[in-house]
Protein: Amidohydrolase
Amino acid sequence: MTTIYTHGRFYTFDQNQPTVEAVVVRNGRIIDLGSQSDMLLQWGRADAVVKDLGGSMVTPGLIDSHLHLSSIATKMMTMDLGSITTKGQLLQAIKEKADETPVNGWIQGRGWDENRFTEGGMPTIEELDRVAPHWPVILTRVCGHVDMVNSKALEIAGYSPDMDIPSGGTVVLDPQTKRPTGMLLETAAEIIERHIPEPTYQQYKDSLREAIRYAIRTGLTGVHTEDLRTFGGIDQTWQLYDELLNQEQERLRCNLLIYYPHIQRVRELGMYAGYGNETLQIGAVKVFADGSFGGRTALLSAPYTDDAGNVGSEIHDNARLYEIFREARAANMPIAVHTIGDLALDNVLDTLDRFPAVALRDRMIHTSLLRPDQLARLKRPTMIADIQPRFVVGDFPWVADRIGQDRADQAYIWKTMLEAGIMCAGGSDAPVEPLEPLLGIHAAVTRRAPKDTHAGYNPGQNLTIEEALRIFTYGGALATNEETVKGTLSRGKFADMTVYSQDLMKVEADEILNTQIERTIIGGEVCYENGGNKNLVEI
Structure:
C-alpha cells in the first residue's frame, strides 16, 4: 500500500532537498518526496491513501541516544521523588508509604535531588529509621549514582565494617562514629539491591510496555537503552523486547546497550553489535568510568572546589579498563563509556587508543567536562559524543560550587563540540532527566530551566533549534551507524517522522514548551495521534 503524507512543512535535514510539502511511503520506507502537487500527480492512484497533516511541521523521527527504559518502567512501580523539595516532605512520603506496606516489605524510590531542597538538608539514617523502623528503605538519587538507605536495609544486607564492597563503591561513614550515614555511592548500592525481591516477568513486561508507549507519545521513534542490570541479563532483556516489539508490534525502534559483564553471554547466544532487525538490535558495550557531579564522584584531573583532596571515583583503574575493552574488541563490539569528569575521559581515550576501531562507532556518553585539549581527541569518524542537554538544567547553577566557575564554563560545551567537528547525538538519560525530547531540545537551545528567564548558563554554548533537532534525529542515527536508513527524510530511508503542533523553526525558544506532539509515525504508520494532550510540563 502507498501512503502519501501531504500538506506538511517537512524539514528533511537532507541537504539535497531541505524542505518538502509531501512524502510518499511504501512498505515502511520513503519512496518519494517533493511538492504536494507533484507527489499527488505521480502517486495519487486509486489505491493510494492520502493523509493530510494540516500544515504541521514534520522532522525525521526523534531518537533518544541514551536512556534506561527499564528504569522508567520500574520507576512506575516505585515512589517518584522528583517533586520533593524539603526534608520534611521526603520523610513524610516515606512514612506514608510505610503505612501502606506490609512489615519488612521494601520501600523503594527514585528521583530525590538535595540541590532542590529548600529547607531541612539531607535526612540522617536515624531519621529514616524513625519513619520506617520495620521496613528496608532504598532511595536512589536523580543521577542514579547515590542511594540513601536505612538501618533495616543495611541489616538485611549483612553490612559490617569489614564487608567487601563492590569495586568503585563507597559506604559513607560518619567521621566521628565511623558508622554508616545511610549514603551509598556508586556500586556500593549492590550490597542492598541483591536482597530486593525481583518483580515477576509479567510485572516487568507490563511496565515496559507502558514505558515504550510513553516514549512514543513524546514523539520518539527510536531509543538507545541500557537495561541488562535491571532486567537481569541479556536473556530476559531480549525476550521482553522481542515479545513486545516483534511479536506484539509495539513499534518503537530499540537499540540495546550491553552492560560489560554480559559480553560473554551475548557471544554464547550468537549475538553481536547490530544483531537483530530494523526494530530491535544489539548495540555497544556499556561501561562506567566514573560517577556524577552531584555525588562528587565524577573523576576530575584536579580536586573538587568544594571538597579539597577529592577528585572523584575511578570505577575501574586503567588496567581493568583495558581488560574490559579487550573483551569487547574480541567480540568485535563498539564501546559506550560513561565519562563525566575530564580525567575519566582521558583514561578512556588513552585505553581505547590501544585498540583498533571496529565497524561501529564508539560512544563517549555525557562528556560533561571537556578541556580544550580533549576536543581534537573526540573528533574522529569512529567516535561520537552522546550528550544530554537537560543536564544543564539539573546541574546549574550548583555545579559551579562543585567544580569552580572556570571549569563550569567548560561543562556541556555543545556548541564548541559541534564547531570542532565532533559528532554528537542527543539523549535524556531518563529517568535521570525527563524523557520528553522537546524538553531536551529546549535545554539545548536556552541552557536554562523552563521557568528561568535569563540568557542561559554560558549562553555562548546555546544551540540553534535546527542544531538541537539534528542531534536528536540525525545524531541518533550516527550513534548506531544507521545514517543510511534513518536520521533524515530521504528516499529509501525508514518513514519515521515526528509531527509538531507548530513550526519550531519560526517561534521563540520558549514556545518549544507550548508545542505538542501531534503524531508519531514509525515505518509509515501512525503509532500515536494527539487527542488533546496538555502543554509540556517539567517532570
